[in-house]
Amino acid sequence: MQTFLKFIISILIFAATPVQAIDIVAGAEIAKSCGACHGAEGISSEGIYPHLAGQKAAYLIKQLRAFRDKKRTDIVMNATASQLSNAEINDVAAFYASLKLDVSENVTPANPKIAAKAAMCLGCHGSQGQGRGSFPRLANQQPEYLATQLKAFKTRKRLGGPMNPISNNFSDQEIVELSIYFSRLNISKKP
Ligand code: HEC
Ligand code: HEC
Asked: What spacing in Å lies between the alpha carbon of 125 and ligand 1's midpoint?
């Protein structure tokens, strides 16, 4: 009987907890404090700052939590993320995921030889590098940022599951070429 009562009480408590709805408008408000580095529309103007527009929400959530928990290290982002609750992280991630990353000037083809090597990345990162679930979008990202991350995976400065062993396969020169290749994949032109 006691177990039954506990069961009923837990159902009542669960029912009383409001379900947290994703609020893109609230996300846009939070994003005002991010624009100085990531751009007002999530398109940054400097290579050290990643574009956030069009990035996968699940990936953004994972990274913001990782910065907050200091599992991913960056002085500015550790401090920034420590100010955000789970709900705020969800909202700001949904806001950036809803924006379009249109950097159509990046149309010059990259070194074709590197395309063969980049093929092994597409299984996770999407056939056009567009990202998939918690696998981040690479297409159109700042090339300098991509190269910094690949080097960070290689030196284990950043822990990223499969990316640590994968990055071992590439020289610093190949990392630069892969980064240029992905930054120029123009998925915004595709239907
Ligand atoms: C003063 C500059 C600055 C501000 C302000 C800032 N960021 Fe960042 N952000 C950075 C830098 C630099 C990096 C790259 C860190 C690295 O190299 O690992 C970054 C990385 C990120 C990443 C990881 C992206 C990826 O592709 O892995 C996310 C997500 C992010 N920032 C979200 C935000 C949000 C949300 C805000 C506002 C609440 C914000 N940032 C404010 C500088 C900033
Ligand atoms: C087995 C799946 C898998 C494969 C294959 C893979 N990746 Fe990744 N990649 C991931 C995951 C998962 C992450 C996110 C890691 C994290 O949570 O920090 C990631 C993150 C990245 C990032 C960081 C992006 C950002 O916005 O910070 C870069 C750059 C990257 N991968 C490049 C590549 C390249 C280049 C290749 C091919 C040489 C590749 N990946 C192959 C799974 C994969």
From this structure: 20
